[in-house]
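Exercise (ungraded).
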Amino acid sequence: MAESKKSVFLTNIWKDNPVIVQILGICSALAVTNNLTNTLIMGIGLIFTTAFSSFTISALRRHIPKNVRMMVQVLIIATYVIILDIVLKAYLPSISKALGPYVGLIITNCIIMGRAEAFAQSHGPVLSFIDGISAGIGYSLILLAVAFVRELLGFGTLFGLRVMPEGFTPWVIMIMAPSAFFILGAIIWIARTPIVKKK
Amino acid sequence: MSEKLYSVVFTFILTTVFVICLAGINAIASGTIERNEQLEFRRSLIYVFNIVEDARSLPSEEVQKLYLDRIQEIDGEQTVYVADNEGKREIAFTVQSAGLWGTITALVAVDESGSRIVGIDFVNHSETPGLGGRIDETAFKEQFRGERISSSSSARIAVVSGQDTGSKDDSKVDAITGATRTSESIQTLLNKAINDVFPAVLEAVN
């Protein structure tokens, strides 16, 4: 195997980051990032799902018939998302309530399918698991950065704790989805400038 | 085995295995989920009746104890909850109405004469988190406490922007910025609660 575990991990977090380089998972990046707590949980959910579905798909990769490949992948991904949903409902009910419909939407996050197709299909289970975790972390880090700005300016809080002074007027635009376009765009611009230059 | 048959058999077996796994996990967790939901519902009841200052942070044993001590459950076509507030009866019931994305289920408490809202809580909804989802915030729900119910059947409590005077007698509360449709849905839900559900509930109680 040419790629080492460390290089797979670092590539996904920075050089080939799913959000800022591959521009995947944008839908949820816009939707859940007006509040850091929800973003963190969404990130953890995605890390869990991507890691385990990549692992399972990779373990089964020699047996999955090519013509129903994608169907099987979706089946595996959906199974892990439902497990996540049940676990959240049973043990973290307040978070499950806060995330509401978004847990189900993890299934449609293209990062998971993307990693399954691009990586797990052609690599071993352990390496795929690491690939899944790092893709999830890469996604979460960018989302947390967006959420940091949005929650700070939109509500004047961080993780629900007030940090801005009393007289601070919240920026309503930051709570709404359009602001995520601007912030995400700015982050992609800033982060990719050095990457593009190197090439 | 031909390739086509293999695909079918493989998918069938894999699906069966996963379904069995999920059924197992669901069976293990369903008891806990049910208990959580019941606890949350009782906590909501304590909140709408305004029995304690901060129902959200009340430990679960306290919730159960207060529920059994203070709230009376009346079964019927729809379960109705009755609490006594200094000699006056207050009645709580659930109402369902359409929201922006899905059904909103609210728990509404009204005083016996139907003149004022005692409290409101949203048991279940799928409004946009951060926008319509903010109906869950205490600041929004607290506006309804003690608000007079208007005689106009199309706006029992008007959820409006910039017209609320802060008075408990004007039957108006502030809507949520950026969530016009959700705010309208709440007004519709309360109309339904007062016009349709409350008379039936009152009959069941008396």
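Further reading is listed at the end of the chapter. For now, observe: Chain A touches chain B through 33 residues (CB under 8 Å). The mean pLDDT of chain A is 86.
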